[in-house]
Amino acid sequence: AAKLSYAPSSYSTDAEPNTFEQITRYNNFYEFGTGKDEPMAYAGQLTTDPWAVKIDGLVEKPGDYDLADLLKGVALEERIYRFRCVEAWSMVVPWIGFELSEILERVGVQPGAKYVAFETLVRPEEMPGQNYPILDWPYREGLRLDEAMNPLTILATGLYGEEMPKQNGAPIRLVVPWKYGFKSIKSIVRISLTEAQPPCTWNMLQPREYGFYSNVNPEVDHPRWSQATERRIGGGLFAGRELTLMFNGYGDEVASLYAGQDLTKDF
Amino acid sequence: MSVADRINRAARRLPAWPIYLIGAALPVWLFWQGTTGGLGIDPVKAIEQRLGLWALKLIVAGLCITPLRRFAGVNLIRYRRAIGLVAFFYVVLHFLTWLVLDMGLLWSQALGDIAKRPYVTVGMVGLLALMPLALTSNDWSVRRLGALRWRLLHRLTYLAAIAGAVHFLWLVKAWPVEPFLYLGAVLGLLALRAIPRRGRTAA
């Protein structure tokens, strides 16, 4: 993959990143199948160039933006983030990306906008998992506007200094490090600013299990399993478990977003 | 000679002990692969899931033996004990893998999950249901209990099979096809047993 040029970031964790192999061969990307190894096996056929992102809704400059135009002028950074899956495993990933707020500011957010909605590509001929109604395609996710504008929230176009591997959500994906991984939607083709809270795929499927916020929270369990601890991928057979951190360890940056909210209700 | 006769004739010559041998060798091979990178990025989950799936496959295989004899005249009953015991062995290893490698011996969280998480609870029910069956899977116990009581006791297999299939379906995200196939197979094989026998009056 093509090398990217980027700057380091003070938002990066000191933790040792997982290997490129671990990050690219252990993926949840149901568009290519429900197995962790299926994205690696099948994502190669995905056409990621040309790629356009429709930006619409409550914005000043809506339109179908060619990816290259969208990326013109953005400053790429390396963000080494903890990544916590709702399935209670975790990794550390050296993403390359830029703050979502850069794009939102450029297209102009109208005053009435309160949420940002995202959609993944639908192309069953290249995404074999979409031939099955496992999820209600397209995959949809959303953030509250203040979450979207937080400097930790990035659109990532690469990892390990190279263009994003297809199984990790090429060519452009969201990364929201204090939320469970499924919020970080992959292969984005649409970004909409909305007044109402947008529907989100996992929340639509099982609202009791996957809330709109889905902040990493060791005190609020998934109904079917505990979220108090996690297994760090790559530790080998006997690594055991680590304690899960509130907001995945990003409380200093994001806890204030939820002041006054009951996180057991707004889970 | 019919296919059933051929199978029966072959079965008379093939002993059951290789099932124990292969059954014991497979987990050794699995753990060895897990330590040498042969099971992918997350060997803990791979071992845990594979042992659970093998156990479920064997339980389904064990449930096939009675209907095969009744409806197809194929008699594989001499392998049933070995299949059942190896299935139990895999269920125990599956549980230990969860407790030691997956939970990392976090006893409080493990016990909490057994009590609070329905899919874990159901899995434990399956394991506990298999215990008396494993303990009585020997000739001495059959004599001691008498054939009738032994057969009644071993109907716990049905509970364990349903528990295993429900456990699988209940732990997955979304609704993939595979766990439904296992649950369907188990329920179908149990339903076959409910078909009344001809030429016999109800007691």
TrEMBL record, chain A:
<feature type="binding site">
    <location>
        <position position="27"/>
    </location>
    <ligand>
        <name>Mo-molybdopterin</name>
    </ligand>
</feature>
<dbReference type="InterPro" id="IPR022867">
    <property type="entry name" value="MsrP"/>
</dbReference>
<dbReference type="Pfam" id="PF00174">
    <property type="entry name" value="Oxidored_molyb"/>
</dbReference>
<keyword id="KW-0560">Oxidoreductase</keyword>
<feature type="binding site">
    <location>
        <position position="120"/>
    </location>
    <ligand>
        <name>Mo-molybdopterin</name>
    </ligand>
</feature>
<keyword id="KW-0732">Signal</keyword>
<comment type="function">
    <text>Part of the MsrPQ system that repairs oxidized periplasmic proteins containing methionine sulfoxide residues (Met-O), using respiratory chain electrons. Thus protects these proteins from oxidative-stress damage caused by reactive species of oxygen and chlorine generated by the host defense mechanisms. MsrPQ is essential for the maintenance of envelope integrity under bleach stress, rescuing a wide series of structurally unrelated periplasmic proteins from methionine oxidation.</text>
</comment>
<feature type="binding site">
    <location>
        <begin position="184"/>
        <end position="186"/>
    </location>
    <ligand>
        <name>Mo-molybdopterin</name>
    </ligand>
</feature>
<feature type="binding site">
    <location>
        <position position="173"/>
    </location>
    <ligand>
        <name>Mo-molybdopterin</name>
    </ligand>
</feature>
<dbReference type="GO" id="GO:0016491">
    <property type="term" value="F:oxidoreductase activity"/>
</dbReference>
<dbReference type="InterPro" id="IPR036374">
    <property type="entry name" value="OxRdtase_Mopterin-bd_sf"/>
</dbReference>
<protein>
    <recommendedName>
        <fullName>Protein-methionine-sulfoxide reductase catalytic subunit MsrP</fullName>
        <ecNumber>1.8.5.-</ecNumber>
    </recommendedName>
</protein>
<feature type="binding site">
    <location>
        <begin position="30"/>
        <end position="31"/>
    </location>
    <ligand>
        <name>Mo-molybdopterin</name>
    </ligand>
</feature>
<keyword id="KW-0500">Molybdenum</keyword>
<feature type="binding site">
    <location>
        <position position="168"/>
    </location>
    <ligand>
        <name>Mo-molybdopterin</name>
    </ligand>
</feature>
<comment type="subunit">
    <text>Heterodimer of a catalytic subunit (MsrP) and a heme-binding subunit (MsrQ).</text>
</comment>
<keyword id="KW-0479">Metal-binding</keyword>
<feature type="domain" description="Oxidoreductase molybdopterin-binding">
    <location>
        <begin position="46"/>
        <end position="202"/>
    </location>
</feature>
<dbReference type="InterPro" id="IPR000572">
    <property type="entry name" value="OxRdtase_Mopterin-bd_dom"/>
</dbReference>
<comment type="similarity">
    <text>Belongs to the MsrP family.</text>
</comment>
<feature type="binding site">
    <location>
        <position position="85"/>
    </location>
    <ligand>
        <name>Mo-molybdopterin</name>
    </ligand>
</feature>
Automatic annotation (TrEMBL), chain B:
<comment type="function">
    <text>Part of the MsrPQ system that repairs oxidized periplasmic proteins containing methionine sulfoxide residues (Met-O), using respiratory chain electrons. Thus protects these proteins from oxidative-stress damage caused by reactive species of oxygen and chlorine generated by the host defense mechanisms. MsrPQ is essential for the maintenance of envelope integrity under bleach stress, rescuing a wide series of structurally unrelated periplasmic proteins from methionine oxidation.</text>
</comment>
<feature type="transmembrane region" description="Helical">
    <location>
        <begin position="83"/>
        <end position="107"/>
    </location>
</feature>
<keyword id="KW-1133">Transmembrane helix</keyword>
<keyword id="KW-0479">Metal-binding</keyword>
<keyword id="KW-0472">Membrane</keyword>
<keyword id="KW-1003">Cell membrane</keyword>
<comment type="subunit">
    <text>Heterodimer of a catalytic subunit (MsrP) and a heme-binding subunit (MsrQ).</text>
</comment>
<keyword id="KW-0813">Transport</keyword>
<keyword id="KW-0249">Electron transport</keyword>
<feature type="transmembrane region" description="Helical">
    <location>
        <begin position="179"/>
        <end position="195"/>
    </location>
</feature>
<keyword id="KW-0408">Iron</keyword>
<feature type="domain" description="Ferric oxidoreductase">
    <location>
        <begin position="52"/>
        <end position="164"/>
    </location>
</feature>
<dbReference type="InterPro" id="IPR013130">
    <property type="entry name" value="Fe3_Rdtase_TM_dom"/>
</dbReference>
<keyword id="KW-0288">FMN</keyword>
<dbReference type="InterPro" id="IPR022837">
    <property type="entry name" value="MsrQ-like"/>
</dbReference>
<protein>
    <recommendedName>
        <fullName>Protein-methionine-sulfoxide reductase heme-binding subunit MsrQ</fullName>
    </recommendedName>
</protein>
<keyword id="KW-0349">Heme</keyword>
<feature type="transmembrane region" description="Helical">
    <location>
        <begin position="119"/>
        <end position="135"/>
    </location>
</feature>
<feature type="transmembrane region" description="Helical">
    <location>
        <begin position="156"/>
        <end position="173"/>
    </location>
</feature>
<keyword id="KW-0285">Flavoprotein</keyword>
<keyword id="KW-0812">Transmembrane</keyword>
<feature type="transmembrane region" description="Helical">
    <location>
        <begin position="52"/>
        <end position="71"/>
    </location>
</feature>
